[in-house]
Design a protein that fits this description.
14-stranded mixed sheet; about 725 residues; alpha/beta; Leucine-rich repeat, LRR (right-handed beta-alpha superhelix); Alpha-Beta Plaits; six-stranded mixed sheet; 9 helices
Amino acid sequence: MIRDSGDISFLGMTISRTWTFGAALLIWLCWSSLLVAAQNAPTDPVEVNALRDIKNSLIDINNNLSNWRRGDPCTSNWTGVLCFNKTEEDGYQHVRELQLLNMNLSGTLSPSLGSLSYMEILDFMWNNITGSIPPEIGNITPLVLLLLNGNQLTGPLPDELGYLPNLERIQIDQNNISGPIPKSFANLNKTQHFHMNNNSISGNIPAELSRLPSLLHFLLDNNNLSGTLPPELSNFPNLLILQLDNNNFDGSTIPASYGNMTKLLKLSLRNCSLQGPMPDLSGIPNLGYLDLSFNQLAGPIPTNKLSKNITTIDLSYNNLNGTIPANFSELPLLQQLSIANNSLSGSVPFTTWQTRANGTEGLDLDFENNTLSNISGSISLPQNVTLRLKGNPVCSNSSIFQFCESQNNDMNNQSSTESNATCFTQSCPSPYEYSPTSPTSCFCAAPLIFGYRLKSPGFSKFVPYRIRFENYLTSGLKLSLFQLDLASVVWESGPRLKMHLKLFPVYVNGTNTFNTSEARRIISMFTGWKIPDSEIFGPYELLYITLLDPYRDVIVTSQKSNKISTGALVGIVLGAIAGAVTLSAVVSLLILRRRLRDYTAISKRRRQSKASLKIEGVKDFSYAEMAMATNNFNSSSQVGQGGYGKVYKGILADGRTVAIKRTEEGSLQGEKEFLTEIELLSRLHHRNLVSLLGYCDEQGEQMLVYEFMPNGTLRDHLSGLP
C-alpha cells in the first residue's frame, strides 16, 4: 500500500522512497565510476615508452612537445597525440593518431614508432626531419595514413611498408628518398594514393604494381626513374591520375595500351625522354588533362577526337609533324592547347576557336615555333581567346601581326574574395576580421585558417572552376558556402595550386567564433583526409593550420571511436550489474532482516497489547480507513492543529462524521503509553466531553477517533465565539 509520502509497504513494512532512491543512486554510481575509469584508463606503458623515445630522437626547438614530459599521453592530452576514446580488452587506452604537422621538428624518426601498434594516422608533414624511414613502421598493421612529405628524409623505402594491410595513403613526397620502389608495394591492396614525387627514387617501376586493385593516384614525378614505361600500368583497374613528369625513361615509347585506361582523368608524362609516336587516346572517355611536353615524340598527332571533358593539352617541345588536326575543335571545356616548338605545318584551323565566339571561358592557343603558313578562315578571334604564332612563317603576313608578338600569360594569381567595401569605416579588434561573404553585414569573426594545395588539378585556369570548387569544399566540410573565403590562390610549379583558406563561423546571437567541438570537427576533416576526392580537383595536401587566439586551446580529438570496445563494454556492464546487484542485495537483506526482526517483535507486542485492550465502544481502525475518511488527509479536511498534531474531519464508511487527531512524528508515544492513554480516555464520560470512538496504530501512525462536535469546541463556547 502506498502512502502520500511516497513510502512503500513491503510485507507489511514501510520502506521509504529515500532508501529506494539511495539504492538506485548506488547502482548508478557503480556504473558511472566504471565508465569513467574505462574512459580515463592510462595509456599502454609500451606506447608511453615509445612516445618518449620518439621525442628523444627529435629536436624540438619551439618546445611544441614540452608537455610530453608530464602526465599520461592520452589522459593529459599530449600535443599531437590522439587516442581512442575507449579502453581495449587489455585495460589500456591506445594512440590512434600522431599529428605533428608543421612544428619545425628536426632530428630523426625513432624505430619505436613501430610500438604504436594501434595507430591509424602517422603525420610528420612539413618538418625538417632527416635520416631514413624506420622499417619498424611496417609493424603498425592498422595504419591508414602514412604522411611524411615535406621533410629531408633519405635512404631507401623499406620493404616492410609493403605489408601494411590497411594503408590507404602513402605520402613521402618532397624528401630525398633514394633507391628503387620495393616490389612488396604490390601487396598494398587498399592503397589508393601513392604520392612519392619530388624525391630521388630510381630504377624501374615494378610491373607488379599494376595488380593493385584500389590505386587511384600514382604520383611519381620529379624522381630518377629509368627503364621503360611498363605496359602493365594500363592494367590498373581504377587509376585516375598517372603523373610521371621529369624522369628519364630514355628511349622508351608510350605503350599503345595506355589508350585503354578507360577511367583515367589525367596523364602527365612531361620531360621523360620518351620517343616514338603519340598514342591514340581517344578511347579514354573522361580524359581531362594531357601533358606529353618536353619529349622526343615524333610523327603526326592522332586525328581521332579526344574527350569532351578535356581542359588541357600540352604537346609542346616534341618532334611532331604533319598538320594541326581538326579534333582540337569542338572541345567545350578546353582552356589550354599548346603545340609549340614542333614541326607542324600547313594551316591554322579557325575552327579551333570558332565555337568560343559566344563563350565566356578563356582559351589559350600556343602554336609558336612551328612551320605554319597561314590561317584558314576568319582571323577575328573572340575576346576570350589568345593565339600565339610567333616563330611561324605565317607571321610574315602583316595582317596577323598581333598574334606574333610576345605575350605574357600570367596565371600565378587567381584569387580571392573581395572585402566588403561598406565596412572599411569600421574595424575588427584583432584577431577578428570581417567575414567577406557572410549574409550578416560587417560581421567580425575569428576564422580557422588553412594552407591547402591541389597537387594535381585537372585544369589550367582556376577561375572557371572557382564556384564549383567552393561548393565542393564547403559541401565536403558540411559548411555553408558563405563560410569560405579563398584569401589567395596561386599557381606553383608542378603545376600545383596553392590556396590560403579562411573558414568563418555562422553569426548566431552574436557568436563570432566556432565552438570547440565544431573547430575540432573541421580540423579533423583536413587532417584525416575525410574530404571526399574530386575528379577535377584531384588530390589535395594540407600545408599548415593557423589557430588564432580564440582557438589556441583547441585539441583535435578522435572522431572515430566514442565508445568502449565490445569486450570491455561487456565486462564493464556485467561487472557493474553484478557488483550493484550484489551490493544492493546485501544491503537490502541486512535492512530487511533487521526490520523483520523489529517488525516481528513489535507485531508480537501489538498483538499482545491489543489482545488485552478490549474496550467496549472503542474500535481499532486501520490506516486505510483513516485515509479514506479524510480523503487521504487532504488539507481541506483539516479543522484544527495543536502541539500534538492536526485534527481532521472525516466520514467513516458507515456514514458517521468523526474528528481524527493525527499525532505528528515528534509527539509519538511508545506503544505501551499510547494504549494506556486510550484506556484512560475510554473511561472519561461527561456531557461536555466528546466520546472516544476508536484509535489507529498502524504504519508508524498514532491516531485517535472522536465524535465530531459540529458547533465548535468547548474553548470556542467559553470564548463567546459564534
